[in-house]
Amino acid sequence: MIRLPRLALAMTAALLLAACDTSSGPDTPGGAYEHFFVQLSQGERDSALEAFAPEGALGDTFRGGAYYTYADSVETHMERHGGLDEVIIDNGGDETSEDVVRVEGRLRFGDGSELERAITFEREGDNWVGRL
C-alpha cells in the first residue's frame, strides 16, 4: 500500500476538482467575463484582449482603441485598490438572443472596494467576445 502525505492528497483532490469544473470556462459568457478580468490581474494583457475582443477589432485603430482604453481603466483600478481579489457575476443570463448575452458583475479589490462592470458578449464561432 502506498501512503501519500496529506498535503499531496489534498493537492491532488483540488486539481481533480478544478479539472472537472466546466461550469464557468471561457466557453460561456460568464466564463469569458471572469477570464478577461483574471488575466488582466495576472499581467496577461495581450492574451486577455485577444480573447475578449472580436476578431479583427484590435487591429482596427478606432475599435481597438476602445478595448485598450477599457483595459487601461480596469488595470488602473486594480493598481490603486490592492489588486483583484474576486470577480463576482451578479447576472449572466440576460440573453437578447441565443448568441448575445449581457453579463453584469462586480470586481472586488484587495482594499474591499468594488467596481461594477456590465459587458455584452456575442458568440463568434465557439467563443464569446465582448462588445464595447
Description:
The relative contact order is 0.16. The longest helix has 20 residues, at 61-80. This protein has a single domain (29-131), classed as Nuclear Transport Factor 2, Chain: A, CATH 3.10.450. It is built from four helices and four strands; from the N terminus they run H-H-H-H-E-E-E-E. The chain is globular and about 35 Å long. Strand 2 and strand 3 (114-124) form a beta hairpin. By secondary structure, the chain is an alpha+beta fold. Keywords: Signal. Residues 1-18 form the signal peptide. This is DUF4440 domain-containing protein. It comes from Aquisalimonas asiatica.
Poorly predicted runs are 1-24
Strand portion, in percent?
25-35%
| Spatial shape | globular
* Total separate domains: 1
Q: In terms of structural class, how would the helical and strand content be classed?
A: alpha+beta
Mean pLDDT: 81
Q: Radius of gyration in whole Å, from Cα? A: 17 Å
Q: What is the name of the CATH class?
A: Alpha Beta
Signal peptide: 1-18
Protein name: DUF4440 domain-containing protein
Keywords: Signal
